[in-house]
């Protein structure tokens, strides 16, 4: 009986996470257009609803009702399943993330985490790395040269930057001694000065850069850069399947924002008079904004420059950081 | 009860996936099914509460199969079927049946003996990673270090093999010069 209750609770939590995050991902596309527009002295979407707020609904209707075209020479099942992988891995990765501090609702303590496993951080990073299969399979099954080029770039870059993100996050883990995101959060509970960003500034920078790469955001979005590879792996896609790739991308952005907030910026600990849940929302909003800000401010870089900076600058820096952390700890 | 359901679901999925790997003639199907099968295997680790190994299974195999895809991309047109030339059918069928019997014997042997005990039983209130660390740095220290040395050797060999192109500087101007020299 108790087991059944646990299963039902988990299902309810999972549904809530998927629904809320998918909604937020949709809303993020609207925010992105607005923020980019203001940074470029435009107005952005204005006509649908007040300040263009209903543009979101219009886009949704368009995506859902558009014809789902499957070109003639593609490998059908793989082509159809690739966008699903993008969205599913992005959401499955969220299973181990504690979004908020625990709270009591009608006398029942709610832990806002779907499954509290003790290797949460590794799990989140591992499952989001499976997300690379989406562009890879899409590109290889599309029977299109641009898609194949996009897929090739995706594999090379994501695998390279996984090394950087894994190594950079190792230094904070060595200090805390736990992979559980809840332990990592509790480690930083003594106000702003206990945030790990002050003790591990280099790891923070490296992890943030790897996060930009893994979510495929500019300046590192070479795998679907229009001027070079048309639309990369998504060239042959239309309608909702195309949309699923981008729901996955925005969900990944939210995941990375939450991860950076928890690991380096104090997580959901309350600060002064601001409650923990609100702190979390503020930090995540700030990170989403930063993603958009960087997109508006910086140009793309070439794939070879990206590889160069990854293997010859970022990875050695991450290893040196681990070495120094180890020496200090010993 | 739920564990049993999960076990059978994951078993069916894993066997199905690996059947596709063996039977399919399309390289893309085979590789995708291999990746899927490897990820479904991690489900067993999660059921056994060995979360660390489960996550390592996902991370390591998804990365390793990615490299297979890269080779597939280079050597095949993955949208077409591969023509297979199977010469000695009898030998392959004989080996197949023999290995099936061997696996059956190996797996069913524990059912008939009752004195099986874990050499390193799980300790209460100690995390997954700590336990693996304890075993890895006490009993299995030598194999662990040997594996590390082997990987180091492989890495150095890889760098030496690729070192002819290491002079290639990514800066734009010199790049152009290099290209002119090639022409």
Concise description?
The complex is a heterodimer of chains A (330) and B (183). With 330 residues, chain A is mainly alpha-helical.
Could you explain how this protein is built, in words?
The complex is a heterodimer of chains A (330) and B (183). Chain A has 330 residues and is mainly alpha-helical. Chain A has one domain. Chain A has helices at 2-39, 55-65, 76-92, 120-130, 133-141, 145-176, 181-187, 196-199, 201-214, 226-229, 239-264, 276-297, 303-329, and strands at residues 103-105, 108-110. In chain A, strands 1-2 form a two-stranded antiparallel ribbon. In chain A, β1 and β2 form a beta hairpin. In chain A, α3 (76-92) runs parallel beside α11. Chain A is globular and about 60 Å long. The mean pLDDT of chain A is 84. Chain B is mainly alpha-helical. Chain B has two domains: 2-139, Four Helix Bundle (Hemerythrin (Met), subunit A); 140-183. In chain B, 74% of the residues lie in helices and 0% in strands. Chain B is globular. The relative contact order of chain B is 0.06. The chains are: A mainly alpha (330), B mainly alpha (183). The interface between A and B is medium-sized, with 37 and 27 residues.
| Mean of residue pLDDT values of chain B | 80
Number of domains of chain B: 2
CATH architecture of the largest domain in chain B: Up-down Bundle
Query: Which quaternary structure do these chains form?
Result: heterodimer
Strand-and-helix sequence of chain A, N→C?
HHHEEHHHHHHHHHH
Which two protein chains have the largest interface (Cβ within 8 Å of the partner's Cβ), and how many residues from each?
Answer: A-B, 37 and 27 residues
Spans where pLDDT lies below 50 across 5 or more residues of chain A: none
Q: Helical stretch count of chain A?
A: 13
Which structural category do the helix and sheet elements of chain A fall into? mainly alpha
CATH class identity of the largest domain in chain B: Mainly Alpha
The secondary-structure element order of chain B is HHHHHHH
Strands of the widest sheet of chain A, in order across it, are: 1-2
Biggest β-sheet description of chain A: 2 strands, antiparallel
How many distinct beta strands of chain B?
A: 0
Mean pLDDT score of chain A: 84
Return the domain count of chain A: 1
Envelope shape of chain B? globular
CA distance, first residue to last residue of chain B: 69 Å
């Amino acid at each position: 009986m108790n087991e059944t209750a646990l299963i039902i609770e988990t299902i309810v939590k999972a549904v809530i996470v998927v629904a809320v995050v998918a909604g937020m991902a949709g809303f993020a596309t609207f925010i992105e257009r607005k923020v980019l527009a203001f940074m470029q002295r435009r107005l952005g979407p204005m006509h649908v609803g007040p300040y263009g707020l209903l543009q979101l609904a219009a886009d949704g209707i368009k995506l859902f009702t558009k014809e789902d075209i499957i070109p003639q020479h593609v490998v059908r099942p793989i082509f159809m399943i690739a966008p699903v992988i993008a969205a599913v891995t992005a959401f499955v990765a969220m299973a181990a993330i504690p979004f908020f501090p625990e709270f009591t609702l009608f006398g029942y303590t709610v832990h806002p985490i779907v499954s509290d496993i003790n290797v949460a951080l590794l799990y989140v990073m591992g499952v989001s790395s499976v997300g690379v299969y989406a562009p890879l399979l899409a590109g290889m099954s599309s029977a299109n040269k641009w898609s194949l080029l996009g897929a090739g770039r995706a594999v090379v870059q994501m695998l390279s930057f996984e090394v950087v993100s894994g190594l950079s996050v190792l230094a904070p883990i060595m200090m805390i001694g736990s992979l559980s995101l809840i332990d990592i959060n509790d480690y930083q509970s003594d106000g702003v000065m206990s945030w790990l960003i002050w003790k591990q500034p280099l790891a923070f920078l490296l992890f943030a850069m790897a996060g930009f790469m893994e979510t495929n955001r500019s300046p590192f979005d070479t795998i679907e850069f229009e001027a070079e590879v048309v639309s990369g792996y998504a060239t042959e896609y239309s309608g909702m399947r195309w949309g699923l790739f981008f729901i996955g991308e925005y969900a990944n952005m939210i995941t990375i924002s939450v991860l950076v907030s928890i690991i380096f910026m104090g997580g959901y600990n309350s600060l002064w008079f601001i409650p923990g849940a609100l702190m979390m929302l503020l930090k995540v909003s700030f990170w989403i904004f930063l993603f958009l800000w960087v997109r508006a401010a910086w140009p793309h870089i070439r794939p070879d420059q990206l590889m160069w900076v990854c293997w010859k600058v970022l990875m050695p820096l991450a290893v040196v950081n681990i070495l120094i952390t180890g020496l200090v700890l010993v | 009860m739920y564990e049993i359901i999960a076990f059978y679901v994951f078993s069916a999925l894993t066997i199905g996936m690996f059947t596709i790997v063996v039977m399919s003639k399309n390289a893309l199907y085979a590789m995708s099914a291999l990746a899927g099968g490897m990820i479904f295997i991690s489900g067993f680790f999660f059921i056994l509460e060995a979360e660390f190994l489960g996550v390592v299974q996902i991370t390591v195999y998804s990365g390793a199969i990615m490299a297979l895809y890269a080779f597939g991309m280079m050597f095949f047109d993955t949208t077409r079927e591969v023509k297979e030339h199977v010469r000695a059918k009898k030998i392959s069928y004989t080996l197949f049946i023999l290995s099936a019997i061997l696996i059956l014997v190996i797996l069913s042997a524990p059912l008939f003996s009752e004195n099986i005990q874990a050499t390193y039983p799980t300790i209460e209130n100690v995390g997954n990673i700590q336990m693996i660390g304890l075993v890895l740095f006490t009993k299995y220290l030598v194999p662990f270090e040997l594996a590390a040395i082997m990987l180091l050797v492989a890495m150095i060999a890889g760098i030496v093999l690729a070192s002819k192109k290491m002079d290639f500087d990514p800066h734009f101007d010199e790049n152009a010069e290099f290209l002119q020299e090639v022409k």
